[in-house]
Design a protein that fits this description.
single chain, 151 residues, mainly alpha, 8 helices
Length: 151
Amino acid sequence: MESRVELAVQKFEQGYNCCQAVFATYADLFGMTEEEALKLSSPMGGGIGRMREVCGAVSATALLEGLKEGNTNPVDKEAQGRTYETVRRIADRFKEENGSIICRDLLGIAAKEKSATPSERTKEYYSSRPCTGLVASAARIVEEELFADVQ
């Protein structure tokens, strides 16, 4: 598979949130339309609803793992365990590269945002936040962990 990391970055720079940028970049590999992918992933941006919890780019990696290997049988604990192991491995790699998987830690924010309204995307916004690099990091990790076997 040709790398899509730059496509994920472009989506983020077009104004999509971090989760949308990563998730929608790869969701077509599972038969999802871009519209479906953008809708499904939209609430996860800003650390889930802009609460600054788990980084949306990290949430996208978990959603993609679910599409790839997610368990649909509630009694198959081994399958669920394999999915959890993959999600943990991806999260650990992201944390190792970026210092945290928590949005507010990555942004240097002390607490949950008071407003749910996203910030305006300006040149200053992009230059003052690490989000573009975080999207690229998550996309690269997804390719290495989930799609290394895709031609």
